[in-house]
Amino acid sequence: MTWVTAIVRAVPAPLATAVLVSGAGTNLQALLDSVHGHEAQIVAVASSAPGARALERAAARGVPSAVFARSDYPDREARDEAMADWLLGRGTRLVVGAGYMELLGERFLERFPEAVINVHPSLLPAFPGLQAIEQALSYGVKVFGVTVHFVDAGVDSGPVILQRAVELPRAREPREVREALRPLEHALLAEAVRRIARGTLSRDPENPRRIVDGPGGG
């Protein structure tokens, strides 16, 4: 089975999509402005933080939202279970991590098999985890980038869907790198959702960790 056919076979367009957020929600806004109501329908926004600006963005577009703060549950597993119940109740078939600053447990991933993606501000497998941009600056790199990948039980270790790089040889501060990467995040995340909704993604038969788009790959 490919990573995507489990989603697309059973779901006509638009693809019912939930977005997980923790902060300002610029990636959420990019999805609302691009794929929402077209290839995908954003049916739910779940936040780890009650004051997240992303919740206001959801409300402005009439998208149901809910907060699942870690402190409101006895452990992460209980939080994940409650969040999964709510997302499934909204008809969610694809889950998009868009600046979501929490780990998702294996039980959550099992409830959305091969249907959770994330955007990360580095060219994975380089600089996984938190503070990826700070890690890259400390290492002295001159090329930065963005990765959209499927989520597995590891930390930013799932198969890569899309990547894009930008040369920033004079970058010194995380802020200037974030500003340069933000348009890449917006574009790549929306494109990944489009490709998943079209059902064109599959595993490379020669490398099951590599995701290709269409007969020719890419």
Structural class: alpha/beta
Percentage of β-strand residues: 15-25%
Give the strand tally: 9
Q: Name the CATH class.
A: Alpha Beta
Low-pLDDT ranges: 1-11
- The total number of structural domains is 1
Strand order in space, largest sheet: 3-2-1-4-5-6-7
How much is the average pLDDT?
91
The CATH superfamily is Formyl transferase, N-terminal domain
- Note the main sheet: 7 strands, mixed
Shape: globular
How much is the radius of gyration in Å?
17 Å
CATH topology name, in short, is Rossmann fold
What percent of the residues sit in helical stretches (DSSP H or I)? 25-40%
Distance between the termini: 19 Å
- Spell out the helices and strands N to C: HEHEHEHEHEHEEHEE
Number of helices: 7
Instruction: Please state the second-level CATH architecture.
Output: 3-Layer(aba) Sandwich
Model description:
The protein is an alpha/beta fold. It has one domain: Rossmann fold (3-Layer(aba) Sandwich), CATH 3.40.50.170. The chain is 34% helix and 25% strand. The protein has helices at 5-8, 26-34, 53-60, 76-89, 106-111, 132-139, 174-198; strands spanning 15-21, 40-47, 65-67, 94-97, 116-120, 143-150, 160-167, 201-204, 207-213. The strands form two sheets. The protein has a seven-stranded mixed β-sheet with strand order 3-2-1-4-5-6-7. Helix 2 packs parallel to helix 7. The longest helix is centred in the last third of the chain and has 25 residues, at 174-198. The chain is globular and about 45 Å long. Mean pLDDT is 91; it is low at 1-11.
